[in-house]
Design goal:
Layout (H helix, E strand, L loop, with lengths): L11 H5 L12 H12 L8 E5 L12 E2 L9 E2 L3 E4 L9 E10 L13 E5 L11 E4 L4 E3 L2 E5 L9 E2 L10 E3 L7 H9 L4 E5 L3 E7 L3 E2 L10 E2 L2 H10 L4 E8 L3 H14 L2 E5 L10 H8 E7 L2 E2 L3 E9 L2 E8 L3 H19 L10 E5 L10 E10 L5 E5 L9 H5 L2 E5 L11 E6 L5
Parallel strand pairs: 5-6, 13-16, 13-17, 14-15, 17-21, 19-23, 22-24
Antiparallel strand pairs: 1-12, 2-11, 3-10, 4-6, 4-7, 5-9, 8-9, 18-20, 20-21, 22-26, 23-24, 23-25, 25-26
Helix pairs in contact: 2-7, 4-7, 5-6
Length: 436
């Protein structure tokens, strides 16, 4: 694969020393987030830009501002099916009566002028006839031959008309660089007559699992072994971000295999995400290899689940890649990915919209929590009979209980200094939909 060129990033030492109370043994979540943000932000807009067809742009990061070359809509038009007329024709009496002189359809405008006291049958999207500035909805009128009658107060002059350039005017910004293109954006781009879009190239992300105990699907489980689930959750979460992903498989717990895997991934990718190998066991080599090939900013965080997590950079063949060494427990992998990796990869991709918005819900039960660490409980949020959002945990919250993630629809985020939550207390939650 062609050697990549990642934008120049600040050294980790310069990032770490800006934290006056930096302690890799007990780093707070907010401190760790700041370190990650300071490290990846300088390269956020440095990926090359390429042009793709509009269909292929969905989920990509817009590489250049899109400026409208036309007015949208191109002319005043009707916002609904009804009858177009001049607002000055509205009677001061209880009822207004107009004479219908023709019809106008979308793509087939009425030709001619409409005088006071006259109207034109019009359909949604049809160009407003000359002399008309108001539309009365069809369900509010009585029609008798060519006479159209309605209550005068049921409409005001100028109602139900879309103005020329109301959506976008010539030269106005339509979309700004850094926006992740969503379905509504496809329609907006198409409304400007554009069939191609300038987007950032996809960020290249490699991932693999580490551990002698891991077996791939289809292999027999020896005593003490488990199927590797982390690569599949990582694949799913990375796929949602629109990055280009490379699966490097399962890497055994020995320095040679680990060094080869890290070197290969660093040479080919902009970022590398691993699971396992970041605890204090004798066979956990991730930190050792990271030190050999690059730098470590931190490896322990005061959070649950996910305390052992390594973040830094590695180099191979002159190319630098950001490295996220996630824990091995399945839930901890997903929590740390959400909290640290997701936003960092979006920033590296050039995206300007990062963190999903938190909302509040009332705890439907007591939630045990000790101050001094941030906790990410798996929750189920729903609305009660009064429309109030309530949230409950999914049961056992162990970092190996992957079912707790599958059953949940949100994270309950319990901040560093919070203690036990009482039933009825407000807590912060972040919905999974659109996130994981």
């Amino acid at each position: 694969m062609t050697k990549l060129s990642l934008p120049s990033l600040p050294t980790l030492n310069s990032v770490v020393t800006c934290q006056s109370d930096y302690d890799p043994e007990s780093l707070r979540v907010d401190q760790a987030l700041q370190i990650v943000q300071d490290f990846v932000r300088p390269g956020a807009n440095a990926l090359e830009t390429e042009t793709v067809g509009i269909y292929q742009s969905l989920g990509r990061v817009l590489g250049k501002d899109i400026v409208s070359p036309i007015n949208v809509p191109a002319a005043d038009n009707s916002a609904m099916d009804g009858y177009a007329f001049a607002g000055s024709s509205l009677s001061v009496d209880a009822s207004t009566s107009l004479q219908m002189i023709g019809k106008g359809f979308a793509g087939h405008a009425f030709v001619g002028d409409v005088e006071a006291g006259q109207c034109v049958r019009i359909m949604t999207g049809a160009i407003m006839p000359n002399g008309c500035d108001t539309v009365i909805p069809q369900e509010l009128v009585k029609v008798d031959g060519e006479q159209v009658q309605f209550i005068s107060t049921s409409v005001k002059a100028g109602d139900n008309r879309r103005l020329k350039g109301e959506d976008l005017s010539v030269g106005s910004p339509a979309l700004t660089a850094g926006k992740v293109i969503r379905p509504a954006d496809l329609g907006l781009i198409a409304s400007l007559g554009m069939g191609e879009v300038a987007v950032k190239r996809r960020l290249r992300v490699g991932f693999f699992s580490t551990g002698d105990e891991l077996r791939s699907i289809g292999q027999d489980l020896d005593p003490g072994c488990v199927y590797d689930s982390n690569r599949y959750t990582l694949f799913g979460m990375l796929s949602r971000l629109g990055v280009e992903i490379t699966d490097f498989g399962v890497v055994r717990d020995n320095p040679e295999d680990m060094r080869r895997a890290f070197s290969d991934a660093a040479a080919q990718c902009d970022a590398v995400v691993t699971s396992g190998g970041v605890s204090v066991g004798e066979a956990d080599y991730t930190k050792q290899i990271m030190r050999e090939l690059g730098d470590i900013a931190f490896w322990k965080i005061n959070m649950r689940p996910g305390r052992p997590m390594a973040f830094g950079s590695i180099q191979s063949n002159g190319h630098q890649a950001v490295l996220f060494g996630l824990p091995g427990n399945p839930v901890a992998v997903m929590v740390t990915f959400y909290q640290f990796v997701r936003n960092a990869l979006l920033a590296m991709s050039g995206a300007t919209e990062l963190a999903p918005q938190a909302m509040q819900a009332r705890a439907s039960e007591n939630i045990r929590k000790r101050p001094g660490r941030t906790e990410f409980q798996r929750g189920i949020i729903k609305s009660d009979s009064n429309g109030i959002n309530t949230v409950s945990i999914t049961g056992a919250q162990g970092s190996g209980v992957l079912r707790s993630m599958s059953e949940a629809n949100c994270f309950i985020i319990l901040e560093h200094d919070q203690g036990t939550i009482q039933a009825g207390d407000l807590v912060n939650v972040v919905l999974f939909e659109g996130l994981l």
